[in-house]
Sequence to fold (205 residues):
Amino acid sequence: MVQRIVKGARSAVLSIQGEQIFDDLRLGDSVAVNGVCLTVAGLAGGAFTADVMFETLNRSALGSLNIGGRVNLERAMPANGRFGGHIVSGHIDGTGVIAALRRDDNALLHTIRAPENIMKYVVEKGSIAIDGISLTVAGLFSDSFTVSLIPHTAKNTTLAEKSVGDTVNLENDIIGKYVERLMQYGPAAAKRSSLTAERLLELGF
Fold:
């Protein structure tokens, strides 16, 4: 829960209170708040404080948090831990807006409208993080996608509390972004180089 918000001209300091993740939390640790990776700058009374810079406020929905509001919290995965879900770095790509909500038996379907720079990495049955929650894309459209929440996810996160029109943080699967980068610059860089397979053979490699 958001305990306190101190806003600066282009930054903010958040104070977050909770229970489950605080047993061994230390200064300098990383905690994802609604999917945004923040650094613990202070610890006191079952709460931690974190500095939020302008870039984070500009790219995410953290700037719209209110005192008393619930947030999703997740610690960084330890190297010796079990890996579940997909790779989530806590580096938000942008935001989306909940366009529709629909219940389907025990599942809750969310349709999220997102800009083109996010939609181009979304694939059906692929993964996307919404407010830090790793979810599977159930449906894909030109400017939106649908995810399905099972009862466990709805109970243990804040996504089921959202309404149509609410803004959410979105993080695409990082693998797609790396592939795109390599496709754009890898071949081009190779063409610009005079070092070829044939030249390597000539040099004895």
User: Anything to note?
Assistant: The chain has two domains: 2-75, 94-175. The CA atoms of residues 49 and 83 lie 27 Å apart. The mean pLDDT is 90.
